[in-house]
Amino acid sequence: MPDRWSREGLLAVPPEEFGVAAFAVLLHALARVDRPVVGLPTGRTPVALYEEMQRESFVFPEGSRLFAIDEYCWREPHPGTNAAFFARHLPGVPIRVPRHDAPHPDAEIAEFCRAVADAGGLDVAVVGIGADGHIAFNEPGSTTDSPCRVTLLAEPTRAQIAGDWQPQPTHGMTLGLAELLRARRIVLLASGESKAAILATALDGPVTPDVPASFLQGHPALTVVCDSAAASQLRPC
Ligand code: GLP
Predict the structure, then answer these.
(1) Is 164 a catalytic residue?
(2) Which residue's CA is the closest to the ligand 1 atom numbered 5?
(3) Is 210 a catalytic residue?
(4) Which residues line ligand 1 (CB under 6 A)?
(5) Does residue 160 contact residue 130 with C-beta atoms inside 8 Å?
(6) Which of 70, 71, 123, 227 is catalytic?
């Protein structure tokens, strides 16, 4: 497969251009909306995007409403929270994140979800893909009507963060596939060889709750931004 190629809604670029490409796609998505409501992911994948935003001194349009798409349940202060992630990678950007230490996570994520709904729902959802095909914390078994909720993190998800943080969290709070799939536009980010197989399964395989990201196939305004390593097992166009 060549280093750079595209098919409808899919942009694959050399790894060193991933952040620039993701930023360009985000800008394009934001340009279409007034006071955009945006869902933002954490993880290793979006770091290149956030670095590019910083490099460009990017400021979200006035009136933007920014939401994290998920957060861990961690009762103690912890550097591994998504709130801490955003403070590190997008310092000063007002992103609402569910409180990781909320005494009642069910109530916390319900209130968070109401805030997203009150804002009019997501205009743009930026998402990554987990090793098991999860989107935000919608683990295998999630369906298109899975709502905002507290989820039990699957083993591969815990393993993914195990190297980084101890002790591992067991639960997360997440926007549901229902809220994410209702976003007017979805931008899926994937980078690195470790995402090649799951990206191909999600985009070219059957649509199934076993691979929550496969539901993205049915979204009318999906843009996939990936690097050539992550794209390496996709069906050629
Ligand atoms: C976590 C996050 C997801 C993210 C996924 C992939 O589970 N909850 O939102 O997409 O990890 O992370 P990474 O980009 O580090 O592979």
Answers:
(1) no
(2) 130
(3) no
(4) 41-45, 69-70, 128-130, 136-137, 157
(5) yes
(6) 70
Q: How far apart are CA 23 and CA 57, in angstroms?
A: 12
Residue owning the nearest CA to atom 2 of ligand 1: 136
Phi, psi of 16 (to 5 degrees): -70, -10
Residues 6+ positions from 179 with CB-CB distance below 8 Å:
113, 116, 117, 121, 122, 147, 148
Catalytic residue among 71, 108, 134, 219: 134
Q: Using pLDDT thresholds of 50, 70 and 90, give the confidence band for residue 162.
A: low
pTM metric for this prediction: 0.95
Nearest Cα neighbor of 98 from 76, 73, 123 is 73
What is the C-alpha separation between 116 and 122, in angstroms, rounded? 7
The CA distance from 157 to 85, in Å, is 17
In this structure, are residues 18 and 191 in contact, taking their beta carbons and an 8 Å threshold? yes
pLDDT in tens, 71-105: 999 888 888 899 999 999 999 999 999 999 999 99
Q: Residue 4 is which amino acid?
A: R
- Give per-residue pLDDT as tens, 52-66: 999 999 999 999 999
Spatial contact of 109 and 150, defined as CB atoms under 8 Å apart: yes
Q: b vs e for 121-139, b when ≥16 Cβ sit within 10 Å of the residue's Cβ?
A: ebbbbbbbbbebbbbbbbb
Tell me the best of 158, 160, 168, 177 to mutate to test the pocket of ligand 1, counting ligand atoms within 8 Å of each CB and taking the most.
160
